[in-house]
Amino acid sequence: MSSGERKTSKYTDMTPDEIKKYLGKFRKAILDGKYIISKGRNRQENVDFIEDYKIDTKKEKEILLGIQYDDFCYAVDNEKEGFSHEKLYIFCKCQELDYWGALEVVDIYIKTNMTQTRRGEDFTIVVSFHKRKKPIRCLFK
Question: Are 110 and 93 a contacting pair, CB within 8 Å?
């Protein structure tokens, strides 16, 4: 490991109540419009998923607000330099979506980062929002 790399930890020691509390803050941020889904050049997979399944803002909010505590898989340390104090929460949400006219049941891999604005308000960054690529286990199912 080079000096610029940090080892990240995977956390599976959360309780259902801790995840429910996190989701309460998460839902409030979504309802208040204080969130963004990452669509930068490193997040083309998110863009493709949203376009392929014709997910508009209303549908994206429906999916995000529908996340339940038992969709939680694990949390990890943020690898981005300067943000190592943050934890990213990973969920896998099963959702029926329209894929060019055909309904398809999709496991959606959702990685979230809850941060605060300068005013101290919660703000959510949905880092990953795409079809699950690898097997993943939900902690409470």
Answer: yes
3-state SS, one letter per residue, for 102-125: EEEEEEEEEEEEEEECCCCCEEEE
pLDDT in tens, 46-70: 999 999 999 999 999 999 999 999 9
Output the domain CATH number for residue 53: 3.30.2310.40
Please count the structural domains in the chain. 1
Residue 22 reports pLDDT greater than 50: yes
- pLDDT value at position 84? 63
Give long-range contacts, CB 8 A cutoff, 24+ apart: 49-55.
Answer: 49/108, 49/129, 49/130, 49/131, 50/129, 52/99, 52/100, 53/97, 53/98, 53/99, 53/106, 54/98, 54/100, 55/97
pTM: 0.91
